[in-house]
Specification:
The protein is an all-alpha fold. Helix content is about 75%, strand content about 0%.
Length: about 325
């Protein structure tokens, strides 16, 4: 018993040390790297939050959404429109983007969580494509196929957000806040209930728990954080188009989660890093980058079903058990 407790404490300290090292590296990164690596890592952080927010619904609630780019896009467009046509206040614009994505998630989620499995997935895809069509056709508001251009990146107090380093630190702070919220949700009794719903929804429903309410709450939190990621993304690029709501964008967090591991908290974030590196390398020698990337994903699904992080965690557990015996 004492040995198990000591092993648990050691494992906890090791995880804390690794997390501290990663956070320190992220803080120091812009001080030693050039402009392109800083911009590249900023995009990684945004997409990592997008993937982890999606995985709350998929990996921890058991619902596969093919339309989550809709909330990312709504957050991005609401933030961009507010900055361009209302007032150049980045904090207020981000709040508006998050609020718009949350409202959309409440409405769409209310209709979707009544269904299970493939029916849920197809309905989310339909709503996602509906949002894409609205953004594409509503020229007067969204700019249509040309999108929103010249989105301002106003300063926050004395800090200029035109500096890629400053915007990186803002992104790091907001992503850290979003990831912390996800961690608190998953570690709470609410998060444990979500995992029970994922593992056996019928048994949970028989106990008298309002399963649909939990699914809806998970859907809304996931959509809200996707809206935050989209809100950060719009001023970062300064130009956004309806493509960010297309089904291929919704497929990206699915790829990232499967690559990293859906049952490990930071799995989708690791998957986002791998995904962007693979995309950058493959797109360097072919425009049809999704084909070889799809082959890589198929290999992971067939031979490494827990994802890279899941595989490493399982190896570590087996090593610990072998050492204990």
């Amino acid at each position: 018993m004492k040995e198990n407790r000591k092993a648990g404490l050691l494992a906890g300290r090791t995880k804390a040390a690794w997390l501290g090292a990663v956070v320190l590296a992220l803080i120091l990164y812009p001080l030693v790297m050039g402009k392109f690596p800083v911009v590249f890592l900023t995009e990684m952080l945004i997409l990592a939050l997008f993937a982890m927010a999606f995985n709350l619904l998929y990996g921890y609630t058991g619902l596969l959404s093919f339309g989550h780019a809709a909330y990312f896009a709504i957050g991005a467009y609401a933030t961009g429109l507010f900055l361009k046509f209302v007032t150049p206040s980045l904090p207020l614009a981000l709040v508006v983007g998050i609020a718009a994505a949350t409202v959309a998630a409440v409405i769409i989620g209310f209709l979707c969580v009544r269904l299970n499995e493939i029916y849920f997935a197809m309905l989310t895809l339909a709503f996602g494509m509906m949002i894409h069509t609205i953004l594409w056709k509503w020229d007067a508001l969204t700019g249509g196929a040309d999108g929103l251009v010249n989105i301002p990146r106003p300063p926050i107090g004395p800090f200029s957000m035109e500096s890629y380093t400053n915007y990186y630190y803002l992104t790091l702070l907001l992503v850290a806040a979003g990831v912390t919220l996800l961690w608190l949700v998953i570690r709470s009794s609410f998060g444990l209930t979500l995992q029970a719903v994922r593992d056996n929804s019928e048994r949970v429903e028989f106990t008298g728990i309002a399963m649909r309410r939990y699914r809806l709450a998970s859907f809304v939190i996931s959509g809200m954080l996707c809206g935050l990621a989209g809100g950060i993304f719009a001023p970062f690029l300064k130009t956004i188009t309806p493509d960010i709501a297309f089904w291929t964008m919704s497929a990206q967090p699915v790829f990232m989660s499967l690559l990293g591991g859906t049952r490990v908290f930071f799995g989708p974030a690791v998957g986002a890093v791998i995904f962007l590196f693979l995309k950058e390398i493959i797109s360097g020698w072919t425009n049809v980058w999704m084909l070889p990337l799809g082959i890589v994903l198929m290999a992971f699904v067939l031979f490494l079903r827990g994802g890279i992080v899941g595989f490493v965690v399982n190896l570590q557990k087996q090593f610990s058990r072998g050492k204990a015996t």
